[in-house]
Write a structure and sequence with these properties.
Shape: globular
Radius of gyration: 18 Å
Strand content: 15-25%
Number of helices: 9
CATH topology: Rossmann fold
Distance between the termini: 39 Å
Structural class: alpha/beta
Strand order of the largest sheet: 5-2-1-6-7-8-9
Largest sheet: 7 strands, parallel
Order of helices and strands: EHEEEHEHEHEHEHHHEH
Number of domains: 1
CATH architecture: 3-Layer(aba) Sandwich
CATH superfamily: NAD(P)-binding Rossmann-like Domain
Number of strands: 9
């Protein structure tokens, strides 16, 4: 049933994006995989604050994710895309459409990685602020503007936006001490509004629109930044396969219609539906 469906996934080199790509492949999707890291070993700046540097190569790449997709018998197109470069965003959509002609699912998972997200208000640089908003809000808006006309023309499509509790709650502690910075929370608050507006603007278009709030997911990036231990102390945590399973379920199951235009708690829904065997582990 899903053999001709195309999913466009951002931030697909590692973490939730890579796990979601594999989960969607298992549901029959062909994958357009986008991120900055095409090949293993590429070095980038990952520090969330301007006060220190964290230049390194992170585990994972688009090529590794694509290999996993192909092992599941599905096709994968890898495209280097930088959320701070609007030209690369437009180019990625153009190449995806040239390859397959349509996009049925947009997973807005990728976010800005760099200074500003964990800086305190007094330490914020306005240039970093612009980059955070570009990478966490404006590029996602641009992607929706690029793919939505095609979805409307074909009579349907699915958009899933990865949001965060940081956009709707105050941090329990300062940034890097179990909390987050103003800019990260502000960008996620703005992004969370998009799905509800799209639902109102296109109420009879056959779209499936969801926010997914993953809860704390212990990704490679968080571990490298030294954030996982403090955050886990406050919020617990789950593997990337948990939100990935929820994303695949929302994208394909008729019962997901009840969540249209709403925010889904991935860990709660995964637990309620038993989507990941062996999770949560018994205590």
């Amino acid at each position: 049933m899903f053999d001709s469906r195309i999913a466009f996934v951002t931030g697909a080199s590692r973490g939730i994006g890579a796990a979601a790509a594999l989960a969607l492949a298992q549901r029959g999707f062909k994958l357009v995989l986008t991120a900055r890291t095409l090949k293993e070993g590429e070095v980038r700046e990952y520090s969330p604050t301007a006060g220190r540097s964290l230049r390194r190569a992170m585990p994972g790449s688009l090529e590794r994710t694509a290999e996993g997709v192909r092992k599941l018998g599905r096709e994968a197109l890898t495209l280097r895309m930088d959320l701070l470069d609007r030209g690369s965003v437009r180019n990625a959509v153009r190449k995806a459409l040239e390859r397959w002609g349509h996009i049925d699912l947009l997973l807005n998972n990728g976010i800005y990685q760099g200074p500003g997200t964990m800086d305190s208000v007094l330490d914020l640089d306005l240039g970093d602020a612009e980059r955070v908003l570009q990478g966490n809000v404006l590029s996602q808006l641009l992607l929706v503007q690029q793919v939505l006309p095609g979805m409307l023309a074909q009579g349907g499509g699915c958009i899933i936006n990865m949001v965060s509790a940081a956009g709707s709650t105050d941090p329990p502690a300062p940034a890097e001490q179990g909390g987050w910075g103003f800019l990260y929370g502000a960008s996620k608050a703005a992004f969370q509004r998009l799905v509800g507006v799209l639902k109102v603007e296109h109420s009879d278009a056959g779209l499936r629109l969801f926010n997914v709030e993953p809860g704390l997911i212990l990704t490679e990036s968080m571990k490298a930044q030294g954030l996982s231990e403090e955050l886990a102390r406050h919020f617990g945590g789950a593997p990337p396969e948990v939100p990935a399973a929820v994303i695949a379920w929302l994208a394909t199951e008729p019962a997901a219609a009840q969540w249209h235009g709403r925010t889904v708690s991935a860990q709660r829904l995964c637990r309620d539906l038993g989507l990941v065997t062996g999770w949560p582990t018994s205590q």
